[in-house]
Amino acid sequence: MSNLIKSIIPLDTAMPQVLVINPVKNAIETTLDTARAITKSTVKVKYVIFNDFSTVETKDILEKHREELGYDLIHIEDLTDHPSPNYNLVLQLAQRQALEAKIPLLVVESDVVITPNTIQALLDHLAAQPNTGLVGSVTVDDKGEVNYPYLKFIGVKDAVIDTQRSLSFCCTLFSLSFLKAFDFKGLDEDKDWHDIFISKKSVDLGFKNTLLMNVPVWHRPHASRPWKQLKYSNPLKYYFLKFWRGLDKI
Length: 250
Known about the structure:
The longest helix has 15 residues, at about 85-100. Strands 1, 2, 3, 4, 5, 6, 7, 8 and 9 form a 9-stranded mixed β-sheet that branches. The chain has helices at about 1-10, 30-40, 55-70, 85-100, 120-130, 175-180, 195-205, 230-235, 235-245; strands at about 20-25, 45-50, 70-75, 105-110, 110-115, 130-140, 160, 170-175, 210-220. The chain has 9 helices and 9 strands. The model has no long low-confidence stretch (mean pLDDT about 90).
């Protein structure tokens, strides 16, 4: 597996400070917004988009923009026939690459838009708090109000929160120390998403999880998987799909 990973995600000799990954499933307009924002970062990054069985149209558009926006593009369909979502495989590939490069890993979802200073702020916190396992940016809507998945923190006045609660991977940095401490090969293959499990694992291993309320990122929830909007517009149908068809397993 190690040689395969090296061949599909070449290391950048310009010494990036962080590996940024962007899991993508269609939603090409929001994905391109995300990509353009990442390329404007003040920090030198190694940027990889993982295309998880998107449509042919989406795949073609991603190929068209890869040189312009400076990302490496990995098509999951070339690596497995397991249907989307393949978050466990994406995380495993990304972890190996980050460890080999000796840099932390930042997950930015394809419905999130960061600012040019977001990554620097996350790295600065990590440098100041070396016992950090995960550090995330709070998500906000287009009016700057805290939104899903951090609604539980509405009204919090602190700029920085050390939290025992799970962090979403909307925009979350994994420290190199945590990546060394926990092998993502241990993730449950039957789960679709791993935010809760990995957040708990970080705490169990003695790390701190932190949410930066003063480093907001714009989030358009579930833009990449619009059926999940049913959770708000038609919850009965959402929970039918979730439990009876086995979707959205966390």
